[in-house]
Amino acid sequence: MFVIDLTYVRVKQHWHYLCVMVDVCDRKIVVRNTGKQKNPQLVMDAISQILINSVALFHSDGGKAFDNYLLDECLS
User: Fold this and answer.
1) Of 2, 15, 20, 46, which sits with the fewest C-beta atoms within 10 Å of its C-beta?
2) Domains along the sequence of the chain with CATH
3) What percent of the chain has pLDDT over 70?
4) Is the pTM of this model over 0.85?
5) Which DSSP helix (H) or strand (E) runs through 32?
């Protein structure tokens, strides 16, 4: 089971977004991705780094960056 979420971090004088995917079974970060904008592309770039067929269950908080038909297509 993988969970994914976004947060923001300050780097020098600018805010950047961090997308992290964690394997809940062993509590390890399996994917991370950063970007200057909080958008579905940031999430899709993170998801594209894994073999989605190997994921039995995928969970997100359903925030705006995850509310996108492109993500649905990517996950199906």
Assistant:
1) 15
2) 2-75 (3.30.420.10)
3) 66
4) no
5) strand 28-35
